Amino acid sequence: MSRHLFRLCIVAGLGASVTLVLVMLASQVSYAGIREPISALGRQDIQHSIKLSLFCATVAAGLALVFAVPSAYALARYKFPGKTIVDALLDIPIIISPIAIGMTLLLMFRTAPGSWVQENLIRFVFEVPGIILAQFIIALALQIRVLKAAFEEIDPRLEQVARYLGCGPWAAMRKVTLPLARPGLIAALVLGWGRAIGDYGATVTIAGSVKGKTDTMPISIVLNWSAVRIESAVALVMLLTAIAVLVLIVVRLAAGARTA
Q1: Which residues contact 94 (CB under 8 A, 6 or more apart)?
Q2: Which of 16, 51, 88, 143 has the greatest CB tally within 10 Å of its CB?
């Protein structure tokens, strides 16, 4: 009796969770249908926000991966003083609110070094580079977590064998570690990209919501909703949902390849 009750509770919890997600997805279609949101995607301002989001998220996720690989490898392979603190610090962008990240970046550019960078190198505040910077910070933390787990699953003895056979540390990384970690690299890149393209809080805080300039898809959703252009807002919501589904499929395929 207790076994059947336990199974019933488990199935009921799973069913309720799946039902909630399906109802949320169905509400997108039932509110505005399919035709009007799709036609709204042809508007020039909507296309601008889509192109801007794709560009910024791709650049941010790509740059983040360049820094995430050595960071995750160091955390997975080396022991050094303060490692626990460093590991915790790199998790901060995952834990705190994205708005807090954006506010911190704004405060950073109010310091003397930050002001010098703004005036002499690149302007970030209320500019497109600010979008990329905010998304970079958010994607980096997530990618480090994924890659650290991927590197920890690789037996260090394989790298030692490669070095014994004449490979230097760079060659061992290139010929052994990275190929074995390829599913993790794909998952990290895709998850970071998906997290970046869906960010609102950090992006809007540092880059603002300048229409036609810094309005990414999440920001454009809020702008269109505020202007009672419901079809345009729903179109972008549906597009972000489709991107999320695609990201999750790719990540699960990568995870399946890693465990195969």
Answers
A1: 141, 142, 145
A2: 143
Q: Look at residue 17 and give its three-state secondary structure.
A: helix
Q: How far apart are CA 177 and CA 151, in angstroms?
A: 8
The torsion angles phi and psi of 181, rounded to 5 degrees, stand at: -95, 10
| Domain spanning 37-259, CATH class | mainly alpha
pTM score of the predicted model: 0.87
Q: What 8-state DSSP symbol labels residue 123?
A: -
Which distant-in-sequence residues (6+ apart) come within 8 Å of 114 by Cβ? 108
Report the length, in residues, of the chain: 260
What phi and psi, each to the nearest 5 degrees, are found at residue 30?
-70, -25
Task: Give the orientation angle of helix 182-197 with respect to helix 44-77, to 10 degrees.
Answer: 140
